[in-house]
Amino acid sequence: MRRLTLLVPDADRYERIDRFIAARGGISRGLARRAIEAGGVFVDGRRCKVAGRTLTPGQQVVVNLEEGGRAAPALAALGRERLLYADADLCAVDKPAGVPAQPTLTTDRGALPELVSALLGAPVTLVHRLDRETSGVTVFARTRDAAAALAEAFRTGTPEKTYLALCARAPSPAEGRVALALGKDPARPGLRRVDPAGDPAATRYRTLREAPGGALVEARPETGRTHQIRVHLAALGAPLLGDARYGGPRRVGEVAAPRVMLHATRLELPHPATGARMVFEAEPPEDFRAVEAALVGPPER
């Protein structure tokens, strides 16, 4: 991502924002307009999507541009088959890999809350987040009270989450519980590292199947730290396939990983209104199953 930070001078009073960005940012007006339309432009910290908006001196304009100047294609709609459950208080969906869980700095298009809201015809509230490349079960609140109850449940670690991970090798030991605190990696913005001074984090795991080329691992995080499963399994010598940021190979022999091979397969939590036990499950998608079959063989039936 490329970022431009521009301060509006007196000379540009009442200038259109698209013209201002082009002139002061040294980019084409077409690129400036595309950045605005995509949602990558902020004026004094608020997203601006109106190319004809006029500016006043002293305002700060921040322009976030995707590499190459164009954002990745966004998913236009979420199919009905992705809806796992819905009632008046919450809904659960099977998130496709590659869809952001929330708007990014470069765009607000195609984020999961927008897609789910369109599917249901009513707004929803995100209460927990999966990484962009992670597929699987995600829940949303449909009322303010439900959002508060679900947020508190996730804050206290009440939900039981189960993930499937395809790793470059089996963790050592093959089954157990890893409790390593995690903190921000100062050398790599946005990433995490094992840090004794960081936030407590624990993950239970077990190796389901393994072969010379890799392993299928079940992971059950007890806490919800950013990139927790990825960092913990890497620390056990079992980085996820496709996860180059944490040491995972993109290819094992003839097997190529199209993404970070992590899938949220099951989520159990109390209903935010009734307290009833709710269980949502999603089978791994085709790309995950294809790599799994090539790496460790098809699942046993």
Account of the protein in words:
Belongs to the pseudouridine synthase RluA family. This is Pseudouridine synthase. One of its GO terms (biological process) is enzyme-directed rRNA pseudouridine synthesis. It catalyses: a uridine in RNA = a pseudouridine in RNA. With 301 residues, the protein is α+β, with helices and mostly antiparallel strands. The chain folds into 2 domains: 2-69, RNA-binding S4 domain (Structural Genomics Hypothetical 15.5 Kd Protein In mrcA-pckA Intergenic Region, Chain A); 80-296, Pseudouridine synthase, CATH 3.30.2350. The protein contains 6 helices and 18 strands. The strands form 4 sheets. Strands 5, 6, 7, 8, 9, 10, 13, 14, 17 and 18 form a 10-stranded mixed β-sheet that branches. The model has no long low-confidence stretch (mean pLDDT 93).
Proportion of strand residues: 25-35%
Top CATH class of the largest domain: Alpha Beta
Largest sheet: 10 strands, mixed
Unreliable residue stretches: none
Number of strands: 18
Key terms:
single chain; 301 residues; alpha+beta; Structural Genomics Hypothetical 15.5 Kd Protein In mrcA-pckA Intergenic Region, Chain A; Pseudouridine synthase; four-stranded antiparallel sheet; 6 helices; 18 strands; 30% strand
Walk me through the topology:
Blueprint: E1 2-7, H1 17-25, H2 29-38, E2 41-43, E3 46-47, E4 60-65, E5 83-86, E6 90-95, H3 112-120, E7 125-126, E8 135-141, H4 144-156, E9 160-167, E10 175-179, E11 182-184, E12 192-194, E13 202-211, E14 214-221, H5 228-235, E15 251-252, E16 255-256, E17 262-270, E18 277-281, H6 286-296
Parallel strand pairs: 8-17
Antiparallel strand pairs: 1-4, 2-3, 2-4, 5-6, 6-8, 7-8, 9-14, 9-17, 10-13, 11-12, 13-14, 15-16, 17-18
Helix pairs in contact: 1-2
